[in-house]
């Protein structure tokens, strides 16, 4: 068992050991804009060291019985569960998550690992008789990489590392550029049960991402991030013809029917739109409300918003913390300014802390902006909620589908047959009826259009970490 502490600094992990670098970078607390930690910035040589260590570890790891690799994931889950309190505090500090959002991330991370640990890919037997055996076998790529984002650093690391390891690969994780600490500590913790070289982590900026994507011996990459970043990865990976999974942007519609209870629906919208300060890829981002109930739902949402406090994650009364980084803050501030400059009606705008420090964005409800507005067309990724009216099923489906993204969507009401017919016409990778955000290790996470390529999780995500080998054995030679 390694000695593990949250107070002994942050480092890369290469070949089972903590490693520093000549250059470090400060990690900013989004609630105060103060630097609270320093992390090493990886060099090209350190990436090569991680690749060599993974190549050395791969044969033994690939040849372990499937059940042994499943047990390793369960052991990692147990370690993470044991240190959940420390990780919650770290997520609050570096991501700016309110306490409920940080606890939620840990509450799904542990069962997520355990769900993946139950999965298995069996050989597909095509023919088996006295003359010949033909099978389709799922074979690991070897050295692979995961590029993780700032908003759910632990869970979105797990979506990559768990299935990669289970299928026999050795993975190098690139920690998020603005919230790396929890990922560095999580991979460090995992070394207690994962063989050296099988699971490594490096911190760096865009240059590290380019080195990973261009590296000729990293065979596969899973990346979660913006659509722009995903397109850049795809271009860079073309020369090496790498296998890719890209889980990118979303601008998820929620369609509300006229038979809902306005008060209950307002509570659902508030949670679905503002969870993690709105920084969730499948949050409700465009709310289409039937015109017969629009005013009632809007008014209930405004009344609820008046009880929501934006402020420090460490204040127990706060339910929306700061957004994670300055780039997010400036982009969201620009969207709010655009709404006001265009004369859109602001139904509600909350106060933010008066200190002048911290990336605090007010909770804003925009009342029926036009479909062509930026707040409707763009993925806001923050606590700004546009509400729009609808009156015709065909028209609202057209409007919901009128997006470059296709991640998730939700439909709310009591006419299940009618909602199911509508769901069949939505161009999204995930559709929920009277639910929102139901995800896990056994559910595919992904979408269509600019939302990306492939899926994470489920048997489909598991298979993506392998290539298919046709195996033929002639018994009568």
UniProtKB/TrEMBL annotation:
The keyword Oxidoreductase applies. CDD domains: ALDH_AldA-AAD23400. Residues 24-470 form the Aldehyde dehydrogenase domain. Keywords: Oxidoreductase. It comes from the Eukaryota. The keyword Oxidoreductase applies. Gene3D superfamilies: Aldehyde Dehydrogenase, Chain A, domain 1, Aldehyde Dehydrogenase, Chain A, domain 2. The active site is at residue 247. GO terms for molecular function: oxidoreductase activity, acting on the aldehyde or oxo group of donors, NAD or NADP as acceptor. Signal peptide: none annotated. Belongs to the aldehyde dehydrogenase family. This is Aldehyde dehydrogenase. It comes from Polyporus arcularius HHB13444.
């Amino acid at each position: 068992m390694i000695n593990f502490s949250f107070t002994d600094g942050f480092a890369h992990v290469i070949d089972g050991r903590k490693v520093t670098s000549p250059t470090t970078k400060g990690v900013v607390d989004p609630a105060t804009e103060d630097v609270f930690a320093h992390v090493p910035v990886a060099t090209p040589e350190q990436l090569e060291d991680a690749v060599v260590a993974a190549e050395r570890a791969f044969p033994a790891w690939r040849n372990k019985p499937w059940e042994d690799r499943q047990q390793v994931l369960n052991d990692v889950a147990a370690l993470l569960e044991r240190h959940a309190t420390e990780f919650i505090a770290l997520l609050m500090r570096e991501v700016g998550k309110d306490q409920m959002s940080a606890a939620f991330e840990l509450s799904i991370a542990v069962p997520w690992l355990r769900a993946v640990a139950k999965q298995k890919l069996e050989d597909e037997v095509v023919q088996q008789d006295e003359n010949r055996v033909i099978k389709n076998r799922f074979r690991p790529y070897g050295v692979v990489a995961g590029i993780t984002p700032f908003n759910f650093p632990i869970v979105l690391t797990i979506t990559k590392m768990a299935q990669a390891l289970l299928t026999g690969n050795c993975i190098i994780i690139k920690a998020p550029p603005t919230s790396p600490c929890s990922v560095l500590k999580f991979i460090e913790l995992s070394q207690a049960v994962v063989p050296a070289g099988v699971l490594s982590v490096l911190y760096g900026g865009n240059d590290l991402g380019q080195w990973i994507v261009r590296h000729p011996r990293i065979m596969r990459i899973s990346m979660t991030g913006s659509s722009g970043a995903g397109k850049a990865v795809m271009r860079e990976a073309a020369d090496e013809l790498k296998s890719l999974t890209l889980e990118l942007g979303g601008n998820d519609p929620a369609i509300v029917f006229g038979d809902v209870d306005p008060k209950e629906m307002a509570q659902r919208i508030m949670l679905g739109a503002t969870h993690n300060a709105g920084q969730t890829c499948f949050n409700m981002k465009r709310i289409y409300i039937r015109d017969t109930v629009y005013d009632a739902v809007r008014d209930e949402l405004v009344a609820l918003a008046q009880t929501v406090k934006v402020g420090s994650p460490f204040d127990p009364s706060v339910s929306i913390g700061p957004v994670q980084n300055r780039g997010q803050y400036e982009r969201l501030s620009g969207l709010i300014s655009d709404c006001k400059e265009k004369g859109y009606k602001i139904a509600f705008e909350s106060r933010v802390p008066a200190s002048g420090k911290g990336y605090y964005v007010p909770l804003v409800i925009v009342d029926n902006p036009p479909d062509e507005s930026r707040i409707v067309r763009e993925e806001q990724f923050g606590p700004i909620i546009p509400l729009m009216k609808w009156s015709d099923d065909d028209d609202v489906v057209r409007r919901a589908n009128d997006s470059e993204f296709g991640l998730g969507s939700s439909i709310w009401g009591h006419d299940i047959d009618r909602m199911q017919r509508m769901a069949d016409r939505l161009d999204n990778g995930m559709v929920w009826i009277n639910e929102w955000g139901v995800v896990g290790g056994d559910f595919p996470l992904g979408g269509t259009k600019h939302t990306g390529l492939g899926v994470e999780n489920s048997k489909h995500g598991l298979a993506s970490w392998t290539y298919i080998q046709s195996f033929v054995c002639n018994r009568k030679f």
